[in-house]
Amino acid sequence: MLELRDVNTHYGLSHVLQGVSLSVEPGEVVLLCGRNGVGKTTTIKTIAGWVKPSAGVVQFNGASLNEMESDRICRLGIGLVPEDRRVFPGLTVEENLQLGVLQCPRRSRAESRQILSQVYDQFPRLRERRLQMGTSLSGGEQQMLAIARVLVGAPKLLLIDEPTEGLAPIIVEEIFAIIERLKSEGMPILLVEQNVHRALTVATRFYALERGQVVLQGNAKSTDDREALNKVIAV
Ligand SMILES: Nc1ncnc2c1ncn2[C@@H]1O[C@H](COP(=O)(O)OP(=O)(O)OP(=O)(O)O)[C@@H](O)[C@H]1O
């Protein structure tokens, strides 16, 4: 459903992605890993239209995303949970979620209320704190809010960038439990995660990046592929 073919992305003169090819098929959780600065976030941003590729093809369900604006890509069903969470200051938890609802303008009020209620069922802690300022939540709760805000837009594919960064181990497990639940519901996910060992337990396949290129891809359940990955990146 998502396909990148030989994608190149520049920041000015800096050639960051140098021919990245990868795919995500329905029901898959695909891990994108690699050391700091290899281009993982840039890959995610290129798919979401936050930066534009200088060459190559980015396709979602057959539609080219190369020239598409980020808000249209979002409406097509690609939901991005960014690395920095971007909980909006000065807004309550519920107002943050309502901004996510607005990303699907064609939905009726009744449908919007229903999906908000379904997302609250999945994140009871957000329901409890719905009148609190989003920025007053703990780091883990803010990450849940960032994921929930994308889910209220009813995405068909999730891009999740470093969801456990800076979180305590027990909270990291809560975030992985959410990812596992989304996987069991059939949500396709492209996941960037530094905690490679843990991420491989939920992923179906992986790609390893080095200097803006895919240097290895494999099956997350294959011992040989995992050993090859151990040699490519320090895990
Ligand atoms: N807006 C920008 N302008 C210029 N260079 C950038 C910009 N964003 C990222 N870079 C550079 O592009 C390269 C890839 O960055 P990117 O954030 O994609 O890597 P990453 O693999 O996600 O790393 P990390 O794990 O540290 O987030 C790095 O050298 C980074 O310094």
From TrEMBL:
CDD domains: ABC_TM1139_LivF_branched (cd03224). GO terms for molecular function: ATP binding; ATP hydrolysis activity; branched-chain amino acid transmembrane transporter activity. Residues 2-235 form the ABC transporter domain. InterPro entries: AAA+_ATPase (IPR003593), ABC_transporter-like_ATP-bd (IPR003439), ABC_transporter-like_CS (IPR017871), BCAA_Transport_ATP-bd_LivF (IPR052156), P-loop_NTPase (IPR027417). GO terms for biological process: L-amino acid transport. The keyword Ribosomal protein does not apply. Gene3D superfamilies: P-loop containing nucleotide triphosphate hydrolases. Keywords: Amino-acid transport, ATP-binding, Cell membrane, Membrane, Nucleotide-binding, Transport. The keyword Cytoplasm does not apply. SUPFAM superfamilies: P-loop containing nucleoside triphosphate hydrolases. Belongs to the ABC transporter superfamily. This is ABC transporter ATP-binding protein. It comes from Pusillimonas minor.
